[in-house]
Amino acid sequence: MLALVQCQMRGLEPGPINTFPKWKELGRIVKRGERALILCMPFTRKSREEESNGDDANGERTYTSFMHKARWFVISQTVGDEFTPPRMPEWDAERALAALDIERITFTDTDGNCQGYARKRQIAINPVAQLRPDDYIFVSPKKKESCLRETKRGFHTACRLAGIKGLIWKDLRATFGTRLAEIGCDAFTIAQLLGHSDVRVTMRYVRTVEESKRAAVDVVQLNSRKNVHVLATWPKQPPLPAAVNG
Fold first, then answer.
1. How large is the greatest C-alpha to C-alpha distance in the chain, in angstroms?
2. Tens digits of per-residue pLDDT, 199-240?
3. pLDDT tier for residue 56 given thresholds of 50, 70 and 90
4. What are phi and psi of 116, to 5 degrees?
5. Residues in CB range of 136: below 8 A, 6 or more apart
6. Pairwise CA distance, residues 74 & 34, whole Å
7. Do residues 118 and 103 lie in contact, with contact meaning Cβ atoms separated by under 8 Å?
8. pLDDT per residue over 58-101, tens digit each?
9. CA angle centred on 21, ends 16 and 24, rounded to 5°
């Protein structure tokens, strides 16, 4: 990324990069007056430290540091023999993580705005952030490979055309939580889907549904009392004659 930014700033065509000696081995030389690109390179170092037991022997500790070095040139800064770039291997996320000694863990953060997080040598990525362009629910009408990033203007336009007043975007979120509670989802599941860090915030949706259930039960009980009263006061009817086969 750092090399790409420098190419854009200098007006250079991006391409394979190498050091001056490596380009010379490949039959190409750097053009006169070209300035090298600066990259951040890792260096492994050793430090000697005394043992904790107080002996004269010293222990060695290896650590990695980074330094900015100006020793790289892009192919457009060189001339010489024809150069065929090596074939890049296909991207394999698991192999890349194994090479970097990084473990992928399950994303458990309930904050809906979090795209991912890292804990020492572990990373977790929000499943929503991993969606491919074909998996987008709201696809951009201008760029089919991109998702719809700005929805407020379209939302207000839809409300105006439908004649709905006072509806805001957050009301859809509340409706989603209420519908989940109505179909029997527990509060913890609703909290994860809505991104609530505290389940007590989610309980308002569950309480609303419980109040609706109580109201429905009260209506049934009231209708039952009315039916019992009607049956109790209904005048007795004479018995119907039984049909007898002759």
1. 126
2. 888 887 777 666 666 666 666 666 665 555 555 565 655 665
3. very low
4. 165, 170
5. 146, 147, 148
6. 10
7. no
8. 567 777 778 888 888 999 899 988 888 777 778 788 888 888 88
9. 75
CA-based nearest residue to 23, from 13, 12, 7, 34:
34
Q: In degrees, to the nearest 5, what angle opens at C-alpha 76 toward C-alphas 78 and 85?
A: 90
**Which of 174, 184, 183 is closest to 204 using CA atoms?**
174
Distance CA 141, CA 53 (A): 70
Token pair of 32, please? 């006169």
pTM of the complete model beyond 0.85: no
**Cβ proximity of 190 and 180 under 8 Å:** yes
Q: Which of 101, 104, 131 is nearest to 118 (CA)?
A: 104
Using CA atoms, how far residue 164 sits from 138, 168, 242, in Å, is: 22, 10, 63
28 closest CA partner among 17, 37, 39, 38: 17
Distance CA 30, CA 73 (A): 8
d(CA 92, CA 89): 9
Closest listed residue to residue 128, CA positions, set 139, 136, 117: 136
Which residue has tokens 């090596």?
86
The pLDDT tens digits for 100-110 are 888 988 887 65
Query: Residue type for 23, please?
Result: W
- Which residue's entry shows tokens 């991006």? 14
> Do the Cβ atoms of 115 and 129 come closer than 8 Å?
yes
Question: Rounded distance, CA 137 to CA 121, Å?
Answer: 33
